[in-house]
Design a protein that fits this description.
The protein is an alpha+beta fold. Helix content is 22%, strand content 43%. Strand 13 and strand 14 form a beta hairpin. It is globular.
Length: 263
C-alpha cells in the first residue's frame, strides 16, 4: 500500500534548518503498532499521520518510540502539506487531536497555530536535575509533561552539554532549558526528551506552549520572539491569547514521494 510521504523542515525559512517532520496522509489510521513501526522507520523526531474527515483532518504524532499528545512542529508541517500540496486554495485547516481541535491559518510569511497554553508551577530543584545539567538552575518549574529550568544567560543555554542518560531518568518526559534572550529575541531555549527517543529536539512547538506564558508573565508582554538554540536552530513568534498560545513560523519542503507501508 503506497501513501503520500512528505518531509518538511518546520520553523524554518530554508531547508536544512528548523525541525524536520514526516507527514503521511492515510485513508484511515492503521493499528498503533504499525504506526509506531512506520515512525521508527522514518526515524525523525516526529511523524504526523493525517486522516481526512470532511474539510478537517484527524492528526496523530509519533516519535521513533512513542505516541505523543501534542507536537507543534509536525502540526506546522502538516498544515503546510494541506495548504501547499493537498488544497492550495485553503487559508486555514483544523486538526482533531488528542489535545483537542487545533487550527492553523496562513500568515504573511508562514502559518499560525493556535494551541492550548501549558501553565507550569514552581517546584524544588531535583538533585538529579542539577547533576544532569552540571549546574544549579536559577529556578525550576514543572507540568505534567516537562520540567522547565531557567539558566542565567543565553550563552549558558547554548553551551550546556547535559547528561542525557540522567535527563532520561527524570520523572517527566522532557526538559526545557531557557534563559533571557539575546540578538533581538525575548527568550532562548533548548529541549531534551531522551526518554521519548529524542535526545535533543531542534525546535519544539509544545515546549513554547509553556515558554510563552512563562516569559509573558516575566516580561509583561503578550507577544514574544523566541529562538530555540539547537544545532539547526529555529525561530518562533509567540502570542499569548488568554489560555491559548499562537505560534507562528515558516516551513520548507525537503522531500515528496510515496511510501510502501505494507508489513
Amino acid at each position: 500500500m503506497f501513501v503520500p510521504l512528505y518531509q518538511v523542515d518546520a520553523f524554518a525559512s530554508r531547508r536544512f534548518a528548523g525541525n524536520p517532520a514526516a507527514v503521511m496522509v492515510l485513508d484511515a489510521f492503521a493499528a498503533d503498532e504499525h504506526l509506531q513501526a512506520i515512525a521508527g522507520e522514518n526515524n525523525l523526531a516526529e511523524t504526523a499521520f493525517l486522516v481526512p474527515d470532511g474539510p478537517d483532518f484527524h492528526l496523530r504524532w509519533f516519535t521513533p518510540t512513542v505516541e505523543v499528545p501534542l507536537c507543534g512542529h509536525a502540526t506546522l508541517a502538516s498544515a503546510a502539506v494541506v495548504m501547499e500540496r493537498l488544497a492550495p486554495e485553503r487559508r486555514s485547516v483544523t486538526f482533531h487531536s488528542a489535545s483537542g481541535p487545533l487550527t492553523v491559518s496562513r500568515a504573511e510569511t508562514g502559518y499560525v497555530m493556535n494551541f492550548p497554553a501549558r501553565p507550569m508551577i514552581q517546584t524544588t530543584i531535583p538533585d538529579t536535575m542539577a547533576a544532569a545539567l552540571g549546574r544549579f538552575p536559577v529556578e525550576v518549574l514543572v507540568d505534567q509533561f516537562n520540567y522547565l529550568a531557567l539558566l542565567e544567560t543565553a550563552d549558558h543555554v547554548r553551551q550546556l552539554a547535559p547528561d542525557l542518560a540522567a535527563i532520561a531518568r527524570l520523572d517527566r518526559g522532557g526538559l526545557i532549558l531557557t534563559a533571557p534572550g539575546d540578538d533581538g529575541y525575548h527568550c532562548v531555549s533548548r529541549y531534551f526528551a531522551p526518554a521519548k527517543g529524542i535526545p535533543e529536539d531542534p525546535v519544539t512547538g509544545g515546549a513554547h506552549c509553556a515558554l510563552a506564558p512563562y516569559w509573558a508573565a516575566r516580561l509583561g508582554k503578550t507577544s514574544l520572539r523566541a529562538f530555540q538554540a539547537s544545532a539547526r536552530g529555529g525561530e518562533l513568534l509567540c502570542r499569548v491569547v488568554g489560555d491559548r498560545v499562537e505560534l507562528e513560523g515558516s516551513c520548507a519542503f525537503y522531500l515528496e514521494g510515496r511510501a510502501d507501508i505494507r508489513c
